[in-house]
Amino acid sequence: MSLLPRLNFSALTHNAAKWPLPGKALLGCALAGLVGVAGELVYLGPSRQRLHQVEAQEVALQQQIARKTALAASLEARSRQLELMQAKADELLQALPGESQMPGLLEDIARLALANGLLVESVTPLDEQPFAFFHEQPVRVGVTGVYHDLAMFLSSLGGLSRIATVHDVALRRDGKLLRLDLLAKTYWHAQAGWRGGPVAQGQPFVYDSSGLRDPFQLLAVQVDYLPGRPSRAPDLTRPRGILEGLALDQFEMVGTLSRGLQAFALLRASSRVHRLAIGDYLGPDHGRITAIHERSIELMELFPDGQGAWLERPRTLLLNVNS
Fold first, then answer.
1. Which residues cross the membrane (predicted)?
2. What is the pTM of this model?
3. What per-residue confidence (pLDDT) applies to 118?
4. In 128-210, where do the E strands start and end?
5. Interhelix angle 45-73/75-95, nearest 10 degrees
């Protein structure tokens, strides 16, 4: 048997009008709290979550609008840049010849090598490489000479009137000389019947060796290098001496001798010492001794420019103080 009386809510609510004021206030607060909790769970919670999502979307849309506004502001400048790039591409495409220029490139390579006193060891054309808008014809070249002559040769390749590029440049010592191997490429348009326009010549790079030393030689045996100047042709019928069959870099100045007012230079090559006076010939480029000093000798070399003329180039051979 229960000791507590059962709570009859119907009786309570029926008699609520007779309740004292504090009871009515307590009941009202309880009902208001119940309604607030139910409203929060059913209506306000999901609405508040949707509000946060909308606010996040608003921030993302504002950032996107800012980016697109900046892009639209630079659209005109980008369009002008694209037009300039397209015009430059069309100009370069128009400069491509309509057929292979490999024979002309081979002639240019031989001419430039001869003009710079180099020995052409090998010229090997490789297979043609077709691309979407042009054909590429590579040729592998090997030349031998001294450092500054090789640098002048590369500089001259960059100044050719035809479109040619140089790749895979390798430099190594070959005895007392240097061996230069490179890959040269020439190009022409792939369209049949194409006639290319003239190539617009920019300002070519010209190698200037003034004040530069050969990094492959010791300071004691440096040969001063100066660009060539126009000169009269040498006497090609003159018998060549033994010392004219050796490259100038194979000689070392080891001292001087004097006999009265006449001075002699002592040069060593192939384990032999040779005595030379002013006017003697030396080296394969018609080099002739013009002055003998205590620590150096001066000579003048002649070499063809590849266009029917001759150039003269002064050189200085220094004393090898370690000899």
1. none
2. 0.44
3. 81
4. 129-130, 134-145, 164-174, 177-189
5. 50
